[in-house]
Structure formats: structure tokens, C-alpha cells
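Re: weekly structure request thread

Next one in the queue (419 aa):
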Amino acid sequence: MARPNCSLEALLSSDGPVYQGAGCPRAAVLCGMNVSWVLADATAQDLQELCLSEEAYLARHLGPPRSPAFLPVCAAYLAIFAVGVLGNSLTCVVILRYRVMQTATNYYLLSLAASDLLVLLVGMPLELYEMWRNYPFPLGAGGCRFRTFLFEAVCFASVLNVTALSAERYAAVVHPLRVRRVATRAHARRVVAALWAASMLCAVPNASLHGVALLPPKFGRRFPRSAICHLVGPAWIYSVIILASTLVFFLLPMLIMSVLYLLIGLQLRRDRALAVLDRGGASGSGGLSQSNTHRLTKRNVQVTKMLCVLVAVFGLCWAPFHADRLMWSYMDAASEQHLRAFERVHVVSGVCFYLSSTINPILYNVMSTRFREMFCRVTCYSNGWPKAASVQMTQRSNLTPSPLNGKVLSPRIRRPAAT
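Done, posted below.
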């Protein structure tokens, strides 16, 4: 590309009010500038930047167009994408296809799998594109707000679903008779719909603060290729929203779930002690009843263990996400040291964020007998599933009272959000 003459002599001898030279407009920042404004108001730094190409000028003010971490992050994201889409799709299929899997508990898991699929299928490609080409943002202000809204809504929905599932598990284990009337599939569907509506409503404030930002014009020259999806509203409002969402949608749910599982653990310990005391005197039909009770207690323990693991994974995967948001809200953007630290935290939080959308189906397969059998039926034995396994599953479901049918499975966990 031809290089224009950017010297002061060339500016003084310019024929028109707007500079036009060889290779313009991308060859030099000077192209398209008002010459008289440059001569009257340019600082020493402005004069140094006049001959920079547009690419070099944008890189100086916005950073490199492609993230230095693009290749390793892309490889990690693609592996997460493949496993996550397959696992969450299987989760949705087995719950929707088999009536035995359509329990109150599993409706929460279906909602979580749907939110994970949204993140993986919509959010991850957008983030990879932005890492590959940081600017210009191709979707405009509406696309920027939709992207922010999507991340916020699915993050909040995931947190609320996990919390609701923990509350359902607490009621099923600690108050099984009281929950009999409400732990139904219809009730679970209504709760899930309400949680999604609340999540979308709470996602609006942050989404409304975002839009497309451009570098300011320089002596009449505009830079449309500098468009990025960025905060355009007041920074203090954004900081308040991020702090509130961290408290309401991470710390408070984690505290609630920790207390609920502590109470569940104490109840299961009491049940186990009573079962040991009563086991010796059973005979005849009473023995069968006690055997069934023992199986139910065992399943409660299995489900509760899986839920505890899921909540722990939830906390581990989402803590970097919220740390990333808080750091961006309160750090000094002019500090090079802060920016370097934020880049590292941002990469780690992104991997953890998407990993949380992938790990849940793996935990279902490892820790839930029923999900493992159903996954095998869909993937391996769809035409000839052994009858014994089918009978075994039917017996297990008959052992569980209808309002507690969700005991076989548990939640999954994940993360608001960028949950």
C-alpha cells in the first residue's frame, strides 16, 4: 500500500480542507482529517500518530485485533463445546423421551441443560469470534445488548434452578409428607417458568447499559472499524449492578445451599441410625417394608451426594466468573499491572464458565445409576435394551413415592454470568 506524505510541509501545502493522500483512507490516520484543525490544535503525540496506519492506530488504543491467547483458548473451548453439546443434548433427550425420567427433580435438570446449551451454542461462538477479531463488533448495538442479556439470563437461571433443586431435595428428605402435595411435575414446570421469567427480568438492567462504543473522532476523522461491544452507560451503575448480582446470585445462594445440605446430611444420619436400630426385628412383610425403606434411604444418600458434588462444582466454576466481573468493575483501567492481571483472570474465568456447562452430564453419568442406564439406552442399546434392566428400573421407580420421584437425580451447576 502506498504511503502518504505526512510531514508538516505536506500539510501546509495541502490543496483542500481535508487531507487526502496516496493509499487513503487506511494508509494513515491523517487521511480524512481537517488540515486546519491539525495545524491549530495538534499536540506532539498527535503529530507522532498522524502517519500511523489505521490498523496500527487502532492497535495502539484498543490492543491487538486478535487475542494472544486465541489458539490455546480456542482448542480448550472446542473440546468443551463438543463434550458439552453432546452431554446436555443427551440429558434433554432422556428426560423428554422417557416418562420414567420426567420427575420433578429432573425438570430442573432439563432447565439447566437447556441453559447450558444456549451458552454453548450461542455464547461460545460469539466469544471465540471476539477473541479472533476483537474489533469491529459485527452485530451492532442490538446484538451487543442481546449477547449481554443472554449471558446474564442463563447465568441467573442456572443459579436459581440449582437453588430451587436444593430446596426441593431438602423438602423431600427432611419433610417428605409435607412435600407430597407440591412435589409434582406440574408444580416443577411452573417453578421453572417463574425462575426463567425472573432471570430475564433481572438481566435487563445490565444489558441496557451496554452498546457499541467507538474511538472518539480525531480532527474530523472517524473510526468506524473501532466498534466494540462495551459499557456505554454510567460506570457507577454498572458497578452497583455487578456487586448486587454477585451477592444475590452467588454468595447468598451458596450460603442457602450449604445450610440446606447440612440439614439434609443431619437428617440422613438420623435416618441411618434409626434403620440400624430397627433392622434386627423385621420379619415377614415387615421385613419387605424395611428392605424398601432401606433402599429409599440408600437412594436418598446417592442423590444427596451427587447434589453436593454438583453444588461444589458450581461454586468452583462460578467463583472466577464473579471475580472477573468484580475486578473489571473496580480496577484502575489506566494501570498496566491491573490490566495484565485482569487478562489472566479473564481467560481462567472463561474456561471455568464454559466448563461448568459441560461437567454436569458427566457427573450425572458417574453418580446416577438411572441416568447412566438411560444414557446407555439412547447411545448403545436403543434397539435391544436388556429386559432385566428395564424391570429393575420399574421396580426402583415403584419403590419411590410419586412426590419424591426426583430422588434419583440432582442438580447441576454452573455459572452468571458473562450465570
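The chain is about 70% helix and 0% strand. The longest helix spans residues 284-330.
Next request, please.
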